[in-house]
TrEMBL record:
SUPFAM superfamilies documented for this protein: Cytochrome P450
Name of the protein this chain belongs to: Cytochrome P450
Region (Disordered): 1-27
Membrane spanning stretches: none
Family, as annotated: Belongs to the cytochrome P450 family.
Listed Polar residues bias regions: 17-27
InterPro entries, alphabetized: Cyt_P450_B, Cyt_P450_CS, Cyt_P450_sf
Length: 425
């Protein structure tokens, strides 16, 4: 047996010299990393999730679009419950790892961490609550939030667009939808920043703080009622106790911190740096929704999904032998850029939403419409009310250090009041 075949037959833990997820995501060209991994391993490659106390935590990185779809849809073979992860079962995970907070050995009471009937029981309230939201009210709340943030920026100035606009708008719009006031939303934003930081102890403390804030809000809604997202969750008969409501509400809070910030930032970044894309949108050849989808296809803000899967059985995937208990990371950015689902004509992708940024299957994102509404409103409002210019070359913009999201760590810009040019459509 030749060395290459032997290496490919090795168990996950026997591989060494693995590429880390953060190295891929924060590099100038993540697609070059994905291409190198594909050339070496095919559509499933061993990678490093995290390193703690010289212990490398490995996983299989699923690169192909078809392979990602298969894993997302095959709940019987690939579980979301981290109790099935060998590193939890055998006590291999070092204390204080960041991944440990996303992959607890005992699943938290939310559909995010469960499969089958228990997932269905816990997912239904979230789906029902989202369906009950008044989207016009959410749009109006988001517009108000954007106006407040833009007012704070002033008629003209300079700064980091991620810090002064993308992060607060995305996050505060979501927390307002949940029913929190601005002051509480700011506290939740600080906690979520600690979660994204990746430091294990900070992550645990921030998650505990968030849980306490959400539980207090649930108590208020039980007393006073309300038409916000948590108000709708509180009355749902599927929940056995308030802890289930809290954990179900925390998922969109975390998503706002991680995903909405990244999507808004990536879209604004591309419109400021890519003259062709900006001209296509401003000239009416591409709608704002089309632009948002172009970003998801070509510059996916979710590089790797933090919703890991764990093999329930010994299986074959993309020609790779996956052992029972192995962890799998879904490489959304690699799947969305998979040559197998693209042509050379960008127009083929206009209004095509078969990308995997929302996932697919039983654990697909429950709130793509809500996320799109917030992101669309945030980008549109800024571009209508401020002329924004990057002040540094795009090549000098480092990516945020994260194993999960891909966006510029900062966007140094100048801005000034714009003449009202109407909303993009």
């Amino acid at each position: 047996m030749n060395p290459q075949t032997t290496r490919h037959a090795a168990t996950l833990e026997e591989h060494s010299g693995l590429t880390s997820l953060t190295e891929i995501t924060s590099s100038p060209d993540p697609q070059a990393h994905y291409a190198r991994l594909r050339a070496q391993w095919g559509e499933v490659a061993p990678v490093e999730i995290e390193r703690k106390d010289d212990v490398v935590v490995p996983a299989w990185l699923v690169l192909g679009h078809a392979e990602n779809c298969h894993v997302m849809r095959s709940e019987m073979d690939y579980s979301r419950n981290a109790a099935n992860w060998r590193w939890n079962r055998e006590n291999l995970l070092p204390a204080g790892t960041a991944i440990g907070t996303f992959a607890p050995p005992a699943p938290r009471p939310t559909s995010f961490y469960h499969d089958g009937p228990e997932r269905e029981r816990l997912r239904a309230p979230l789906d029902d609550a989202l369906a009950a939201l008044d989207e016009r009210a959410v749009r109006d709340q988001t517009r108000y939030m954007c106006e407040r943030v833009i007012e704070r920026m002033g008629d003209s100035g300079s700064g980091d667009l991620v810090k002064v606009y993308s992060r607060p708008v995305g996050f505060l719009a979501m927390t307002t939808t949940l029913g929190f006031d601005l002051e509480t939303g700011a506290r939740l934003m600080a906690d979520s920043a600690a979660v994204v930081s990746g430091d294990g102890e900070q992550v645990a403390n921030a998650q505990a703080s968030t849980a306490a804030i959400v539980m207090e809000h649930i108590g208020q809604r039980r007393k006073d009622g309300g038409q916000d997202l948590i108000g709708h969750l509180v009355g749902h008969p599927n929940f056995a106790h308030d802890g289930e409501i809290a954990t179900s509400a925390i998922v969109p809070v975390s998503a706002a911190a991680i995903f909405l910030t990244a999507w808004i930032t990536q879209t604004l970044h591309q419109l400021l740096a890519d003259r062709e894309l900006s001209a296509r949108m401003s000239g009416g050849r591409l709608t704002l929704d089309g632009t948002l989808d172009q970003v998801l296809w070509r510059r996916s803000p979710i590089a790797q999904s933090p919703a890991l899967r764990y093999a329930r059985n010994d299986v074959q995937l993309g020609g790779r032998s996956i052992r029972k208990g192995d962890a799998l990371v879904l490489a959304i950015a690699a799947a969305n850029a998979d040559p197998a689902v693209h042509t050379d004509d960008l127009w083929d992708e206009v209004d095509n939403r078969s990308h995997l940024s929302w996932g697919t299957g039983p654990h697909a994102c429950p709130a793509p419409r809500l996320a799109r509404l917030i992101a669309r409103t945030a980008v549109d409002h800024l571009l209508r009310h401020r002329d924004v210019q990057l002040t540094v070359p795009e090549s000098s913009l480092p990516a945020a250090a994260s194993p999960w999201v891909r966006h510029a760590e900062r966007l140094p810009v100048t801005w000034q009041r714009a003449t009202d040019r109407g909303a993009f459509r």
